[in-house]
Amino acid sequence: MTTSLPRRVAIPPLSAMPRAAPAGASVQELSGTTMGTTWSVKFAGSAAARQTLGRMIPAALERVVSQMSPWESNSDISRFNRLPMNEWQTLPPELFKVMEGALRIAQESDGAYDPTLGALIDLWGFGPSGPRTGPPAASDIAPHHRACGWQQIDLDAGRRRMRRSSEGAIDLCGIAKGYAVDLVMETLHQHGLYHALVEIGGELRGSGVKPDGSPWWVEIDRSADGKQPVLVALYNLAIATSGCERGFTSGAQHFSHTLNPRTGWPTANGTVTATVLHSTCMEADAYATALMVLGQDDAIDFAITHRLAAAILCKHGDTFIERTTPMLDQMLS
After folding, report:
1. Number of domains observed in the structure of the chain
2. What domain of life is recorded for the organism (predicted)?
């Protein structure tokens, strides 16, 4: 007989009780595929609204893909990566917003999150060139690593344009999916729908409540360390998790898909997952990546400094250790 673990419950601080969903609304559901993964939306509304959003949500997601996907040769970011050094490119509003966020978090984390790792990501087999079964040669890694660095990117907010002074290619896969969640939620809000749960590839953002007044609950899975799972009420809150499970194994070594911008190699600091709760999924996404790279102690220090609600799961030998930040502890108390 299997005994399920009791759950810990995390509820964000509320200045006021969430407004009730519209009378007569029912939970409507939509889903599809995007960015090599799946998306789903649940919202309190009508069947007519569901039909409208069935058109609007895929269009919003396609905007993100057409602007930010390194797998699309004609995307805005792919065209930028082909530009000569120091040549400006005007960006659409969505891409400019993501680049502003990416560079801000790169600066805050001292490069633990860095959006200029495109060529390295591809070299390691995690980009458009396709997977590999063994690590690249150190002599190939070194020149790609030297070309990276978020400081090479210049943004001109007045003209909404960008240029670079080195050959490090932009890759936004550590932030674009989170932004896509935000954009879908924004699309719902534009249609007067403020009670919803949006999910893309395991990253989520909630708004309002269900028709019965209960929150949109999501779970932070802690099954690896045998501790109680954490159930989070997504009252106007987003959640993103970065992990080391994706990648490839060569010999006895696993190479994570998350690269350390400081070394050019996959992270290998014992961090298994980093989960961040934030008001936007874009920021939660990028911060979770930064925490994975920083490692347990530095990640906790960074999260405390930047007042992040976060959970870090690390492995030491056969032992799993979970650490949470004061901001998350306040939600759990």
Report:
1. 1
2. Bacteria
Edge-first strand order for the sheet with 217-220 is 8-10, 230-233, 217-220
**Helix ranges, the chain (H):** 47-68, 76-81, 93-108, 118-123, 138-146, 176-190, 281-294, 296-305, 326-332
Report angle CA 265, 293, 92 to the nearest 5 degrees. 95
For 253-264, b where at least 16 C-beta lie within 10 A, e where not — what string?
eebbbbbbbeeb
Tell me the pLDDT tens digit for each residue of 192-243: 999 999 999 999 999 999 999 999 999 886 555 556 778 999 999 999 999 8
Strand order across the beta sheet in which 309-316 lies: 26-34, 37-45, 196-200, 203-207, 237-243, 271-278, 309-316, 319-324
* 154 assigned to some structural domain: yes
Per the CB < 8 A criterion, the answer to whether 101 and 286 are in contact is yes
Tell me how far apart the alpha carbons of residues 167 and 85 are, in angstroms, rounded to a whole number. Answer: 7
Q: Is residue 130 part of a domain?
A: yes
Domain at 101, CATH number: 1.10.3980.10
323, 313, 331, 247: which is closest to 12 by C-alpha? 331
Q: What is the pTM of this model?
A: 0.94
Is 157 a residue whose pLDDT tops 50?
yes
The verdict on residue 180 lying in a domain is no
Q: Residue type for 90, please? A: T
Question: Quick check: is 128 in a domain?
Answer: yes
- Cβ-based burial of 139 (10 A; exposed 0-12, middle 13-18, buried ≥19): exposed
* Distance from chain centroid for Cα 299: 16
Rg of the chain's alpha carbons, rounded to an integer? Answer: 20
Residue 278: what residue type?
Answer: H
User: Regarding beta strands 153-156 and 203-207, do their DSSP bridges make them parallel or antiparallel, or are they unpaired?
Assistant: unpaired
Q: How far apart are CA 179 and CA 171, in angstroms?
A: 14
CA distances 157 to 162, 163, 240, Å, are 9, 12, 28
Q: Measure the N-to-C terminal CA separation of the chain; round to a whole number of Å.
A: 31
φ and ψ of 41, to 5 deg: -135, 130
